[in-house]
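User: Sequence in, structure out. Go.
Assistant: Echoing your sequence, followed by the structure tokens.
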Amino acid sequence: MNFKQRKIIGHRKQIGIIAKSINSNKVFPVWIFWGTDGIGKTSVAYKFAKCLLADSDSVNENLDLADDNKIHNLVENKTHPDFFVMDSASPSIDEARILMAKVCKAPSLSRRRVVIIENADKLNKNIYNSLLKILEEPPCDTVFILVCSTIGNLPITLQSRAIKLKFNPLSKSEVVLALSLFDVENAETLASISEGSVGDALYLYENNGVDLYQHLLRAFSSDYETSHKTVKYIIENKLCDNFGLIKQLIIRVLKEYIDTITETKINDYFAQSVGKVSIDHETEKVLQIISNLNRGENFMLDKNGMVAEVFETFFERYEI
């Protein structure tokens, strides 16, 4: 398979910082790319790696290389001898030590070596310790790019040795643009409910998430009978089988609910001076629902029962 450019949507500031470091020949040896999953951090890391391994002395604002550059296939196929990828799902401490030994050797094809560590916030403590030993004094011709969603899970000592770039969720229009590359239906709705994550939007599309989302919207309507019928439909059609998905969408609907009542009460407050704005009761219900969902996921409780309990808590009188 012939690989070409990775299409990057958004993240202009972050890409600009990377391009400036390459063009000024001041590439720091350790970088941390962090932010929500599915927004393009890893794609930017791969483009960064390609520029470094292609020995580019200057790059454009998109970090693009010529489509026929051999570096695309070498990096995407992970066959470049100076390119290494580690993912928290796979490495043992022995594998991590072998990798660290490799990066201490001289590059064989490019001027630099590049190591991308995906899901760096999920590595175990022993692997962190192995990394710290080499990151304290990294080889001058090696660049480490750590990609993670939760930077707080990385040791402070590791963070202190890195350039940290935060990647923000994409705008709705950016998600729609990204989805146009995949020729998916309901792009506008997917962009609205994926909270700036193209990865989440594609996951929702592949798992009929738009249909489930619309059913949940009806289920949380103020009409009790409509909610009762909709929840029965969800359970009878086994839409609860993908509990992670239904949990994600329930939380999304509840966020919209809280946002709506908050905006309404604040508007009433300023327009009519109705008194103190309070959403304590509604917020308490939502937090209880999220707690119940987490409990159901963590302890593998009955999924149908958990979904019914969500609506029992929400309506405080719901029976199924």
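User: And one key feature?
Assistant: Confidence is low (pLDDT under 50) at residues 273-278.
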